[in-house]
Write a structure and sequence with these properties.
- It is built from 2 helices and 4 strands, in the order ββββαα.
- With about 100 residues, it is of the alpha+beta class.
């Protein structure tokens, strides 16, 4: 038995010795383990580029973002990126591509 703190972990293992052609073999039989299926993540795979930020929007601003989403057929995060990029370009903080 192994354990961390006061919770022991028990291993149920069965050992069996085999003899074949004069050779001795010990085989270990362990109970079948459950397969863990992870949940699929929503959205596109992360690129690892950029810094993730969290922004809370009030209902009136969120309604504006949702209107932009409906008109341009993009996701909310993409809409926020496009809106910020447009503002930065118009205010000459970012060069137009």
């Amino acid at each position: 038995m192994f354990g961390i703190g006061s919770s022991p972990i028990r291993f149920h293992v069965r050992l069996q010795r085999f003899r074949q052609n004069g050779n001795s073999d010990i085989r270990v039989f362990m109970p079948k383990q459950e397969t863990v299926v992870s949940k699929k993540r929503r959205g596109p795979a992360p690129t690892g580029k950029g810094v993730p930020i969290m922004v809370r929007l009030q209902p009136d601003m969120l309604a504006g973002v949702d209107q932009f989403v409906a008109e341009h057929d993009v996701s909310r995060p993409e809409a926020v990126r496009l809106i910020i990029r447009d503002w930065l370009i118009r205010h000459q903080v970012l060069k137009a591509e």
